[in-house]
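Incident log, support desk, overnight shift.

02:14 A customer reports that sequence design results differ from what the structure should imply. Their input is reproduced verbatim below. On-call engineer (initials T.W.) acknowledged and began investigating.
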């Protein structure tokens, strides 16, 4: 199995390459779009000889390494094919556009020796050298480097490692609107995510204010909305990054894999009827959280598994009876009258579903020392 991580390295990118690559992509797009047939189902009729002709044309006056032209053509073909799929589903009528000035650097264009990346810019005379050891956040324990992407301000580097995920123990983690509840080493832990919720709230207020502006100044408001939405995403991602790093470190110490909810079943369970905006938010947070935690765990050869979360906050972990909302954030079992914090109910059920023993086996588990202690902390 391959674990993958990506890192950004701030960079003064070669402006000339960035600009000329962008131009070449624009030309390639115009030319390749002429090969899209739209009678009936749209498809691309771009043959080998067409590609060769385009390549030769683009290589005229091209002083950079030739592989850049190949990568530009490939990336435009990918763009056009993606567009055709959308077009055929009736999801777009507008022609595709290239908006970002990014350069994809194939692995034939760089070498990596003694910690130094050497990227060919112009054949045999101009290189971009990056000493990766200067960037302490880039791990040293990778097997190979995947593709590189150069933007105007940064180099995005993808590193890969072969892993065989294995764990002695399983932790389960449940994402809620204002906390993440976890069962780690038979102990309940709650991670406060109110700050994350707060970030989203702040931007929601800003968005509302801008929307009022949209009738008078539509262009300005659109630009502002985009700017704020990017900022919101970045701040939220930053929060989730820090949290998942902390949790991944803890799981590594415990040599524990993670049981997560299969988010396809999320809609029915989470947030118990609160407003749809919160639900969307929570789903976004849960996806981000799971995605980041997963790749951080895999990098350390720790496995991740997904379980169906259906009714996981409504089923009694002690007797499988139905649980109903009780005071505050707690749930009460209609069969055995046990009262447990709602988030703890969910995480115990995830644990049982993922660690592979049947529902009623928790009774036994509870008899065993440690879990009993920690559950009792939450039993009112
Ligand atoms: Zn019960």
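02:41 Re-run completed on a clean worker. Output:
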């Amino acid at each position: 199995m391959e674990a993958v991580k990506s890192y950004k390295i701030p960079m003064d990118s070669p402006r000339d390459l960035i600009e000329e690559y962008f131009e070449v992509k624009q030309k390639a797009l115009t030319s390749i779009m002429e090969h899209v047939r739209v009678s009936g189902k749209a498809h691309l009729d771009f043959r080998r000889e067409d590609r060769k002709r385009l390549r030769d044309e683009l290589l005229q006056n091209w002083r950079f390494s030739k592989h850049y032209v190949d990568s530009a053509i490939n990336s435009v073909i990918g763009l056009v094919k993606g567009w055709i799929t959308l077009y055929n589903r009736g999801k777009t009528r507008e022609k595709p556009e290239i908006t970002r000035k990014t350069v994809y650097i194939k692995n034939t264009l760089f070498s990596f020796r003694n910690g130094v990346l050497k990227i060919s810019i112009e054949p045999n005379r101009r290189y971009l050298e990056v000493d990766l050891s200067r960037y302490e956040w880039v791990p040293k324990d990778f097997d190979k480097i995947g593709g590189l992407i150069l933007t105007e301000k940064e180099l995005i580097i993808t590193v890969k490692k072969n892993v065989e995920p294995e764990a002695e123990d399983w932790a389960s983690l449940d994402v809620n609107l204002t906390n993440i509840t976890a069962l780690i080493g038979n102990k309940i832990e709650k991670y406060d995510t109110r700050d994350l919720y707060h970030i989203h709230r702040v931007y929601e207020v800003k968005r509302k204010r801008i929307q009022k502006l949209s009738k008078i100044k539509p262009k300005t408001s659109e630009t502002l909305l985009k700017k704020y939405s990017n900022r919101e995403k970045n701040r939220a991602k930053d929060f989730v990054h820090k949290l998942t790093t902390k949790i991944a470190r803890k799981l590594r110490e415990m040599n524990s894999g993670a049981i997560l909810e299969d988010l396809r079943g999320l809609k029915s369970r989470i947030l118990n009827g609160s407003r749809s905006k919160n639900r969307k938010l929570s789903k976004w947070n849960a996806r981000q959280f799971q995605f980041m935690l997963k790749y951080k765990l895999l990098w350390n050869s720790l496995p991740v598994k997904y379980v169906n979360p259906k009714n996981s906050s409504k089923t009694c972990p002690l007797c499988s009876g139905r649980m109903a909302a009780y005071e505050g954030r707690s749930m009460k079992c209609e069969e055995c009258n046990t009262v447990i914090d709602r988030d703890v109910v969910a995480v115990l059920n995830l644990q049982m579903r993922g660690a592979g023993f049947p529902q009623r086996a928790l009774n036994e588990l509870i008899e065993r020392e440690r879990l009993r202690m920690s559950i009792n902390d939450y039993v009112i």
